[in-house]
Amino acid sequence: MEKFKKVLLTAIICAIVFLIISFWIFEYEWSILPYLLLTGCFMAWVQAETAVYKFLDKLLIGSLLFGFLAMILIFLKRYMMSHLVYDSPLPLAELWDKDTLMMAAVFSLVSFLGGLLGVVLKGFYALYKNKLGILVVFVGPLAVLSASLAVYKIKIGGTIMSAQHGWPYPFWIHQIKDVLDNFTIDEWIFSPGSLYHYIIFDYLFYLLIFVLFYFLVKSVNARLRMKKINITIALFSFLVFMVLIFISFLSIKKSYISRQIAWAGECRENSDCAIVANRSPFSCAIVVNKANADRILNLVNSFPSTGELQCSGREKAVCLENKCWVSIEQTPEDINDVLWQRIKQSIKNCEVGSTMQTHSLEVTAVLKTGEVIKAFEPKIDDIFEITDKVKDKCGEIRTATE
């Protein structure tokens, strides 16, 4: 058991860190992959083995622990608040849901593959550690250049896709005045030309950053009398940091904008609210307080949208409980159908704590968050049939009848 200690501890720490950053990295699903691979690398690097086959058993156990522990922690994050506040039972049966188990298996598999990559990198370090630092200086910019492809349709200097926006603007422009109209005109001192030229510019730009970082570490080491900084490890850590910045950029930006939209919706009356935009991936009707409309619209427009979302065209902004919401003009039958479908879906998702029906077919469902939903069921006792079907999955749901 002693030989597994470091790997298991690393897996637990990585699962906790993964839980914390899951607020952002789940926005774009593919952006979680580098974090999973890096977790596997850490589990390989903490091992003191010298033969490849000796890594595998510990790496396999650590990957399985990380994958399933990460999913359990994320699950608990979703339901713990309702449990603490409303004393609602946790729907633990969802932990064994097919989709949850599949995601945990994917986490484990990708982290295991990352561990194999970590073994390879550790082997290279053991063989070429005196030369590997210089190699990272020249190869690292290529990796960062590739990672910058994750940032698209947004002007960020140093990314290939920013060629569309004139990067490295404004470093190589100067202003001239039109002789006739006396207008100020921006003119390129040197025109980069094709995307091929931008790739060269970006590589040289990152190369300069890595060279400066290399000499910075050497300068710090020259001032240290005792323990020196390992230049190769420092350069590799810097490389990983820069790659993660680019890959996570859009995920973090989307999360930030979504939170700003949520916080910008405080109101007192309906006239305070307004629909400011229809943008994917946010909403077909982004509604905020009018005082924040321009700021939110600028934020939304700064994100690379994939177009507009399909809406009914009957949306309007309303103020409910001091919060701006989107309301759709519907008939009473439409509203009841929506509420009834929501009750059924909430029961299937194990989100309902109790239900009650009356002889008039009115059903009241109390969610574990404390929210109350009322709707009329199609026929008497339909609600009981629905709750009985999910008993094995969600446990006993308190039911009552008039």
Topology of helices and strands:
Blueprint: H1 5-25, H2 33-45, H3 53-86, H4 98-147, E1 173-177, E2 184-188, H5 195-223, H6 231-263, E3 273-279, E4 283-289, H7 293-301, E5 315-320, E6 323-328, H8 332-348, E7 352-357, E8 362-367, E9 372-376, H9 382-389, H10 391-394, E10 398-401
Parallel strand pairs: 7-10
Antiparallel strand pairs: 1-2, 3-4, 5-6, 7-8, 8-9
Query: What percent of residues are in strands?
Result: 5-15%
Number of separate structural domains: 3
Number of helices: 10
Average pLDDT score? 80
Low-pLDDT regions: 163-174
User: What pattern of helices and strands is seen along the backbone?
Assistant: HHHHEEHHEEHEEHEEEHHE
- Helix/strand/pairing category: alpha+beta
Measure the end-to-end span: 59 Å
* Global geometry: flat
Task: Explain this structure.
The protein has 402 residues and is α+β, with helices and mostly antiparallel strands. It folds into three domains: 2-259, no CATH class; 270-328, no CATH class; 332-401, Signal recognition particle alu RNA binding heterodimer, srp9/1 (2-Layer Sandwich), CATH 3.30.720.210. Helices cover 54% and strands 14% of the residues. It has ten helices and ten strands. It has helices spanning 5-25, 33-45, 53-86, 98-147, 195-223, 231-263, 293-301, 332-348, 382-389, 391-394; strands spanning 173-177, 184-188, 273-279, 283-289, 315-320, 323-328, 352-357, 362-367, 372-376, 398-401. The strands form four sheets. Strands 9-8-7-10 form a four-stranded mixed sheet, with helices on one face. A two-stranded antiparallel sheet has the order 1-2. Helix 2 crosses helix 3 (53-86) and helix 2 (33-45) packs across helix 4. The longest helix has 50 residues, at 98-147. The radius of gyration is 28 Å and the shape is flat. The N and C termini lie far apart (59 Å). The model is unreliable at 163-174 (pLDDT under 50).
